[in-house]
Design goal:
Layout lengths: L1 E12 L2 E12 L3 E5 L6 H8 L7 E6 L2 E2 L4 H10 E4 L11 H12 L4 H14 L15 H14 L4 E5 L7 H16 L3 E5 L3 H7 L2 E6 L2 E7 H6 L2
Parallel strand pairs: 3-8, 3-9, 6-7, 7-8
Antiparallel strand pairs: 1-2, 1-4, 4-5, 9-10
Helix pairs in contact: 3-4, 3-5, 4-5, 5-6
The protein binds adenosine-5'-diphosphate (ADP) (2 copies).
Protein name: General L-amino acid transport ATP-binding protein AapP
Keywords: ATP-binding, Nucleotide-binding, Transport
Pfam family, one: ABC_tran
């Protein structure tokens, strides 16, 4: 069952075409890793899938919802698709717990106690249950990124997008974030991941998409990709 469908997707920034005729589908539960040189459109591609960027032609359908210009449509997509960025993008003036509960309380209208119960479960799941009352600036980069993962999961998304989630981290913190992502992968989440962590890709990916100059230049099952270099 296809949960993400991209058909002939094109995107321009002014005169510059960042995505060229992107065609791909992602099945429910699939893990897709996107690789390619800097500037090849990887980030733009996944940002287009949750409508952080707008495509100008072609179709993107996520869990049956077609991305259109309609604002209500954007809200629907954002609550289906969680995203984790290179820079953790936490709200600096909110505690870890309040970072996590903000969106579910506002968008899903959960009570504070209900949201905090889920928040604590998620902090346990990413391995930092004791950090709930801290502010982001009091945490290490690896801890902040795990909060960002928990925050995205709190909205109970159907798909998780990751844009170089470990690229801003000191080397010793990369593994703790990859561990949280592994756990998520084994739980059956549908994931699209831009990363340079090839060992992680080899372990977790079902499929590799390689981009260059805005196009998908190769798309293959992970085992084929890694066995035929
Ligand atoms: P990657 O993630 O593969 O490094 P990006 O998707 O970030 O590539 O960028 C693809 C191309 O689009 C790059 O040439 C980049 O400079 C350009 N680009 C990205 N965002 C914008 C923007 N907001 N305005 C203009 N050009 C952009
Ligand atoms: P990433 O590859 O992780 O997206 P970038 O440094 O390429 O990081 O982009 C960071 C931000 O700057 C993004 O919001 C992107 O859209 C914007 N950006 C990237 N390239 C350009 C560009 N050439 N002109 C304007 N904005 C850009």
């Amino acid at each position: 069952e296809d949960i993400i469908v991209c058909r002939n997707v094109n995107k321009w920034f002014g005169n510059f075409q960042a995505l060229k005729d992107i065609n791909t589908t992602v099945k429910r539960g699939e893990k897709v890793v996107i690789v390619g040189p800097s500037g090849s459109g990887k980030s733009t591609f996944i940002r287009t899938i949750n409508r952080l960027e707008e495509h100008q032609s072609g179709d993107i359908i996520v869990d049956g919802i077609e991305l259109t210009k309609d604002v209500r449509n954007i809200d629907a997509i954002r609550s289906e698709v969680g995203m984790v960025f290179q820079q953790f993008n936490l709200f600096p003036h909110l505690t870890v717990m309040n970072n996590i509960t903000l969106a579910p309380m506002k968008v899903r209208r959960w009570s504070r106690s209900q949201a905090e119960e889920v928040g604590l479960e998620l902090l346990n799941r990413v391995g930092i249950p004791e950090q709930a009352d801290k502010y982001p600036s009091e945490l290490s980069g690896g801890q902040q990124q795990r909060v960002a993962i928990a925050r995205a999961l709190a909205m109970q998304p159907k798909v998780m997008l990751f844009d170089e989630p470990t690229s801003a981290l000191d080397p010793e913190m990369i593994n703790e974030v990859l561990d949280a992502m592994r756990e998520l992968a084994y739980s059956g989440m549908t994931m699209m991941i831009v990363t340079h962590e090839i060992g992680f890709a080899r372990e977790v990916a079902d499929r590799i998409i390689m981009m260059d100059e805005g196009r998908i230049v190769e798309e293959s099952p992970a085992n084929e990709f890694f066995d035929n270099p």
